[in-house]
Design brief:
Length: 414
Amino acid sequence: SAEFTYQNGELFAENVALSDIAGTFGSPTYVYSRRHIETAYRNYTDALAGMDHQVCYAVKANSNIGVLNVLARLGAGFDIVSAGELARVLAAGGDAKRVVFSGVGKTEDEMAEALKAGIGCFNVESSSELERLNRVAGSLKLLAPVSIRVNPDVDAQTHPYISTGLRDNKFGIDIKEAPQVYARARDLEHINVIGVDCHIGSQLTDVSPFLDALDRVLLLIDELAGLGISISHLDLGGGLGVKYRDETPPTPAAYIGAIRERLGERKVKLLFEPGRSLVANAGVLLTKVEYLKHNEHKNFAIIDAAMNDMLRPALYSAWMDLLPVRPREGGANAYDVVGPVCETGDFLAKDRELVIEEGDLLALASAGAYGFTMSSNYNSRGRAAEVMVDGDQVHLIRARESLADLMLGEQLLP
Ligand code: LLP
């Protein structure tokens, strides 16, 4: 991306050398660019100019409160899936009215928290959830703003683990059953129907599945109007892909342009829930080569980051670019780049041509989304530090976990 560039033979984040960051904060460390996040957000809002809209960043992609704060300052809304994410949004200065709450398993406590905070909308995913929300809102003497998440049954043509809009997925309500659910919602005393939403999958690289979903949702909106149920907002979820390798996803401008064209003269507020497309290419995972190890068939680079820090390669066989922080001259070897965790699946990159020596720094690219948030303490490894680069400044936004952090809350038997 434009914020991670080589300057005088070494890799920088904005105006800061990654080697300086490793020197100050150690490794592995997630490094994010504030400017990248801001530009990515504005690409959406610029494309939506002149339309009633709200961009609700999907917190699950990267939930560090420093990241959320950058977006909150721009007036972003947020898409949350738990009380934990709500707490983060509020701690980061986010506006509860601009929060939508997604997810198939909202607990009563989570509903109550969100109602008391005054969130903008519950994206309801089942009839049982609707009934529960009505009860919880009633007990608090509040009215719950609701959108029904419909499943439009379109094939997002992405990895099966991150495709969500097909009939067989657990997400949303079958679009054919939606009118009944809306009719019920209208009759419930503590429910206020305001919207319709869908989210068909992640890392989509083509607009056509989005447009197919939109067409189906627009038919539903017309059908609901016939029943006297008016829908004031349409939330198309997230899912716009990014370039990891050679993908050519549409830009937010092209994606939103196509949607605006399809909407024509309709008066509806548009919501989006982008996660990856705002933050993936805003971050790298900075790591150090601990050992080089060669056998007859293979060269291994053993690095200080592992699957517990970045799960995507192990879980989805995701390909992520790996960049030398200070490229060397010389003959390259093909390396499998692996972590210290005791699993064969613990790799971050396979079969990469690299000229490296022990002690060298590497940067795993496009690591700003679904990196830190999916990290764990497996093998009792403390989670990585996170820093935000802003011009020539570096701010620590999460300290590296200490050994004491690892045992926090644990107890010996009496
Ligand atoms: N809205 C809903 C309801 C979602 O389920 C998701 C992502 C988003 C928005 C944001 O989607 P995005 O714009 O980031 O594609 N861990 C996987 C991705 C899982 C996505 C889950 N839902 C990965 O690393 O590829």
